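Hi all, a correction to my earlier message: I attached the wrong file for Sulfurtransferase. Here's the right sequence:
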Amino acid sequence: MNSSSTSPASQTAAVTSEDLAYLGLDEEGHLLDHTQWTPQIAQQLADTLSVKLTEQHYQILQQVRDFHTQFNHPPTTRPLIKYLMKTLPEHNISNQLLQQLFNTGLVARHVNRIAGLPKPPNCL
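and the right structure:
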């Protein structure tokens, strides 16, 4: 994650929809190039779900990105939850918690999108 003295949740630099258009999104709102992701872009993507990202969100998003780096694909729901339970045990991760935090029933799809990653395979 960000190694500066401020947490991603406290960074307030706005990213506009023009910025997202410049970066490029696919037809479902996923970044075309996941290396362009920043915490500010994550917040802009989260705004589409009416979610204000907190430090807990950013910790989850970083783990989702780490999963992608480690396994070379975006996680689907069950592997995502198992991975988060292992890497973030202090958060008591469950599907219900992720639905609540990210304001969606399509957890894997939208968590990957906010994390700047492609839609997982076999995802509706």
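Sorry for the mix-up. The chain has one domain: 15-114.
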